[in-house]
Amino acid sequence: MTLKLDKVSRGPHLSTLVASSITREIAQGRLRPGDQLPTEQALATTFGVSRNVVREAIARLRSEGRVWSQQGRGAFVADSANATVLTIDYDALEKGDAFRHLFELRGILEVEAAGLAAGRRTPEDIEGMRRTLSIMTDVPYGSLQWLRTDLEFHRAVARATGNAYMVQFLGFVSERVRESILASGNRHRSDDIALATLAEHEAILAAIEAGDVPRAQEAMRSHLAGAAQRVDPHAGGRPEPRLGRNGAR
């Protein structure tokens, strides 16, 4: 068994990059169901990372149903036919229209979520959204904390729908987008962009708080289209606003 594993570039998501590299080996058949992965130490040496990073990567692959572990023996490639967990690989987002398609999916989900949130929000939901916007106002645009808080705002909108599945799906897709932005390093810092992004979030919040379903949906659609133009290292070109593509939530 000859694997094509290389050292990964330094960045905030080393475990994601390691997991993606191993996933690629599985997808291309160099690692087959039942094969044992190299030891943690061997993988750490190959990728040029710590064993903790490798453990995080293996834990992620295990949660995605790609590998299974046996104490004292190591990790093994799972039977792909038994995989039941939705996954979106970072490597796949680097190719073709995959990243744009992810934006489209995000738009479909988030526009509907904004409408549901406008009809179902509670005072606690509104307070949660206000709290995240307050934090975003105080941290540097494009920083890791900004992206985390941005994601939390959209999770708050999802929670306001009262639909647990919406929260799960949006959280999953949003996290994949965030990881791709971090890995790409495409985080332009600009006061004008920061103000525009905050204004879009505030418009979403105002519409949801007012209980205006159509306005909440349109505010979310407008934000997603604007975000795609600001942060979209893969799709290229000018997005169609009605498709709801998003790059920065």
From TrEMBL:
Task: Kindly give the SUPFAM superfamilies that the UniProt entry links to this protein.
Answer: GntR ligand-binding domain-like, Winged helix' DNA-binding domain
Superkingdom, taxonomy of origin: Bacteria
**Residue intervals of the HTH gntR-type domain:** 12-80
Instruction: Read off the PROSITE patterns from this record.
Output: HTH_GNTR (PS50949)
Keywords from the UniProt entry: DNA-binding, Transcription, Transcription regulation
Q: Which GO terms describe its molecular function?
A: DNA binding
Basic and acidic residues bias: start-end ranges: 231-243
- Please give the residue ranges the record annotates as the region Disordered: 219-249
| Stored PANTHER family | TRANSCRIPTIONAL REGULATOR, GNTR FAMILY, UXU OPERON TRANSCRIPTIONAL REGULATOR
Q: What is the protein's name according to its record? A: DNA-binding FadR family transcriptional regulator
Q: What is the lineage of its organism?
A: Bacteria, Pseudomonadati, Pseudomonadota, Alphaproteobacteria, Hyphomicrobiales
